[in-house]
Design brief:
By secondary structure, the chain is of the alpha/beta class. The protein has two domains: about 210 residues, P-loop containing nucleotide triphosphate hydrolases (Rossmann fold, 3-Layer(aba) Sandwich); about 60 residues, Alpha-Beta Plaits, CATH 3.30.70. Helices cover about 35% and strands about 30% of the residues. It has eleven helices and 13 strands. Strand 1 and strand 2 form a beta hairpin. The structure holds adenosine-5'-triphosphate. Adenosine-5'-triphosphate binds next to strand 2 and helix 1.
Length: about 300
């Protein structure tokens, strides 16, 4: 395995007309890391992955893979990728396509093993243009794992997969990471990032807003959730005026709030002379932390 960085972005910028898709991105990924790339629509995730794979070129800055160019790493068979776009070839079977990928790979695995790992052995004789969305994703996964790579790049890999397939997919991905491969995946499923990744990157308008473990990202959001029920008629104005609130949701008799100082908020709540029932105070989930971090950035840029 490699020492040093697997991926190194240094001050990378990529613009399309006046859109800065990637804006001065500096980033290093290390061997064996499983890294989730999060960001709202248009944050620059796909562009980042395309730059990493040498499918697009930076306007400025450098992208290095294993100390060389993306192209060198790909030619050497060190990178497997599963992208969102790009049709699979028509009129070939799953088995033929996977065999082709293995034949072309400098360090191929056995075709039967690749098919089995991706869970497509049973549909090996099926034409690739006759597959369901989830089956197509599995075939893309087979193509990305046709050989012994050091880095696997996945752009929204589980889109279209049912729950069982998704679980099987991540179990396989974990095996890949346990064998020392670096796995980088872009996703909109934050629970996946929370469960799978040992490092989470949050992109927003092409810039890195947060970089850390899921726990660190949650802590960075700095807020906690407080929920409780109130009986009788609810006077909303004093509740909305409680200190340290970042959001309030009043639904029937249930109040859900987020606060940057839950202790002070709850103290003030009792000060209103109301009697909250079923009071719960909890940390933010990764999804809520993500929303809080990106919303804070949005309001800064307004
Ligand atoms: N080929 C292109 N031409 C012009 N603009 C582009 C092109 N590709 C991407 N963009 C723009 O660059 C920005 C980043 O797009 P990108 O696809 O990298 O984001 P993303 O984070 O992958 O989004 P999503 O979650 O919606 O897939 C967006 O504003 C997008 O409209």
């Amino acid at each position: 395995m490699t020492t040093g960085s697997v991926v190194a972005f240094d001050q990378v910028t990529k613009t399309y007309g006046d859109v800065r898709a990637v804006d001065g991105l500096t980033l290093a990924l290390h061997p064996g890391e499983t890294v989730a790339l999060l960001g709202p629509n248009g944050a620059g995730k796909s562009t980042t992955l395309d730059l990493l794979l040498g499918l697009k070129h930076a306007d400025s800055g450098t992208v290095r893979l294993f100390g060389g160019s993306p192209r060198e790493a790909i030619v050497a068979g060190r990178v497997g990728a599963m992208l969102q776009s790009g049709g699979l070839m028509d009129e070939v079977t799953v088995g033929e396509l996977v065999k082709l990928a293995c034949d072309l790979h400098p360090k191929p695995f056995r075709v039967t093993d690749v098919l089995a790992r991706a869970g497509v052995s049973q549909i090996a004789d099926r034409k690739v243009n006759k597959l369901s969305g989830g089956q197509e994703q599995r075939v893309r996964f087979a193509l990305a794992t046709a050989g012994d790579t050091d880095l696997i790049v996945l752009d929204e890999p589980t889109t279209g997969m049912d729950v069982t397939t998704r679980h099987a997919f991540w179990a396989t991905m974990r095996e890949q990471a346990d064998q020392g491969r670096t796995v980088l995946f872009a996703t909109h499923y934050l629970e996946e990032a929370d469960a799978i990744a040992d490092r989470v990157l949050v992109l927003h308008r092409g810039r890195l807003l947060a970089d850390g473990t899921a726990a660190e990202i949650k802590a960075k959001a700095g807020a906690r959730r407080v929920s409780f029920d109130l009986e009788g008629p609810i006077d909303e104005a004093p509740l909305r005026a409680l200190p340290f609130l970042t959001s309030v949701d009043i639904s029937g008799h249930t109040i859900r709030i987020q606060s940057t100082d839950a202790d002070a908020t709850v103290h003030a709540l009792y000060g209103l002379g109301v009697f909250p029932r079923n009071l719960e105070v909890a940390g933010l989930g990764l999804e809520q932390a993500f929303v809080a971090i990106t919303a804070a950035e949005e309001s800064k840029s307004k």
